[in-house]
Structures are given as structure tokens and as C-alpha cells.
Amino acid sequence: MAALAGGACVSAPPAASVSAPAAASVQAPDPSSRLPFDATAVLTGWERVLELEPVEHAPVVVEIDELLATDVMNDAAFRDAVERWVGYWQETAATAVPDFLGRMGSFGAMVDSALADAGLPPSLRYLPFIESGYNPRAASRARAVGMWQFMAATAGGLGMEVTPLLDERRDPEKSTEAAITFLSSMHEEFGSWFTVLAAYNGGPNRMRRVLARYAPNQPPSDSLFWALRRHFPPETREFLPKLFGAAIVAANPEAHGHEAAPHAPFRYDEVSVPDATTLDVIARAAEVPQAEIERLNPQFVRGITPRGRETPIRVPEGRGDAFAAAYALVPPAERVTFVEHRVVRGETLSHIALQYGVRVADLQAANPGVRPQALRIGALLTVPVAPSVRNSVAGG
Description:
By secondary structure, the protein is mainly alpha-helical. It has three domains: about 30-255, Lysozyme; about 270-330, no CATH class; about 340-395, Membrane-bound Lytic Murein Transglycosylase D, Chain A, CATH 3.10.350.10. The protein contains 15 helices and four strands. The protein has a two-stranded antiparallel sheet with strand order 1-2. A two-stranded antiparallel ribbon has the order 3-4. Helix 6 packs across helix 7 (about 205-215), helix 6 packs across helix 9 and helix 10 (about 280-285) packs across helix 12.
């Protein structure tokens, strides 16, 4: 899926000079674990054997990032493509990248933790960077949604709820859990991270068809995908170079002319509400701006929690207890301050206002884009609920 303007950019500006990413991510051992001799003094070409006394030492931990360690980095065509995408992220997308980096600052630690727990390559943290700019509300022209850009059918198969009120593709944590599951499942099938990521972009079924037709007796590998790339759409062919280019720039933004715009950290207390509640009511009970509740809970598409069930809610860190105490004092009839009305044939604003006991002027103020003389059948109107009818509407 595309990271910018809802569509994929499959051609990049002229090449920019860049060093290839390191083939491996190495965790430096504790100094006390180092061997008591110069490891660079390797006995290459010597005809005698140097005998050393055994030395007790702590194990040396070396972690290889399987994605960055690909042998395709030795391919000149791949390196050229990566360089073009470095130029894209450095120049063409220069106005957008600081916000991408800022949102990655908010959600990156959560993604890093989930990847580490699942044993997946740390460099996959750059996947939501190119998919959505780490924007939980991102939506593509193909109707993929969220940080990880899931289609509704795929999201449903991964256990995410997608309804007009609640879209868990927009939930940073739920969608990250689903992405980890999806990526892990495909890696079990394909075994190659290039193949997995190309399938993530173009679809696993397309990948299976191409492999079955053009390489039926070969196990999937990074180099095999790169050799077969002409059989995939342009967006999928460019997906891996695009990701590597983003990793190079985002890992060292200052060196590429970027300064991240700081975004608020994604930290919160989790509470719950027992029934339908609008986010403005939640914000008042938590004594924070409504925009902060919306930022922490982008999954509530219409600004209201589902009716008839208990729903978890995020409030700013440290506000959980205060929210619970204040919310308990809100009468059930006042937990919903608006409802949505779908226009049917023959209705006017006056009819709708009369039905809900509100003034036409209030109805117009709540729906500034609506033309009273041209109500569209099926359109959703926001109706501010008057105190006299709140009880019946909230319970209906």
C-alpha cells in the first residue's frame, strides 16, 4: 500500500549517494565477556597452531537482522533502486517525513517491543513508516486502513472488528498484534523476508501463483523474488527498495536533512465504559481535551463506543482513577450527547429536528456541510440530543 497520498509512487527521483545498510545488527557484548586476545589477529596462512589456555567468559550475543542481512544487497540493480528511494525520502517526500518520524516516535517503541517478543527482524519497524507514515487513521484509495494498511477482509480474518462505529485497523496496538501474526504466518510458509514483504504488499495468493508458475521446484528466497520481480505489479517490485531506502533515511534522519517533529508519546491508562458513551463525555470525565481522547482511541470512527457492551477506553496516563470516579457520577441518560440519523426518502431537517426534539439551528450547526434543500438519502446526520429526549435515545 502507498505511504503518501493514498497511492504508490513506483518511480523515484535520480539516484542519491548512500551507503548500504549494515548486513547485520550486532548487540555489543559486555566488556567483561571479550576474549583476552586481539580478535583481529586471525592466524590466516600460518602453518603452525597457536595453543591458548582455555578462558572462562560469558557468552557473546550476536543478533542478526534477517531482513537487512539479505544477499540481495550484493545485487547492483537492487542497490541502485535503494539509492533512488533514499533520494525520494530525502527530497521528494521531504515535507512529509518529519511527521512520519514524529509519529514513529510515538508508536515505535510499542512496535519494537512486539517485534522482539515475536522474534521478528527489528527492521520491520519501518514497514508502517512506508505503509502509512505511522498514521493510525491513514486510508488508501484501495480502502486499506490504519498504520499497517489492512483491507477489511484481511483484518476480519485476523480477528479485528471492522464496523461503522469501531474499526480496529485504526487501533495501533490491535493492528500491530495482527500484523505480527500475519507476518509470522507468511514467514512460516515462505521462509524468505523479501517474499513475505512482497506478499504483504501484493497479496499471498499472487505470490503463490507466481512461484507456482515460474519457479515450481524452487524454495522461496530473497534472491528468487528479486529474480522474478518482473512478474509482479510495479508497486510490489519497488516495495523492498522503498523499505530499505526508508530504513536508511529514518535510522539517521539528520544526515539526510530531516528533523523529526515531536509527537506526544503513546502512554495511557486503560479504563472501560459499560455502554454507549460519546468521547466528549469521556473527555469531560477524564478532565482532558476531547482531542486527546480521540488521539488515544482512533478506533472509534464515529466518536461513540458501541452500545450494549463494556468497551475498553484509553485515557491519558495518570487519569484512570479520576476518570472512573467522575464517570460513575454521570447519569446513564447523559452518557450520549449525540446520535446519528440516516436520512430516508421524504425527510427534511425540520422533520428530523422534531423527531429528536432539537432545534433546526442546532441540527444545522452540527452538520455544516449539509444543504437543507438537498438532503441526500442515506446520508448520516449528527444529531445533538436534547436533555428531554436523552434517556429514550440512549436506551433505544
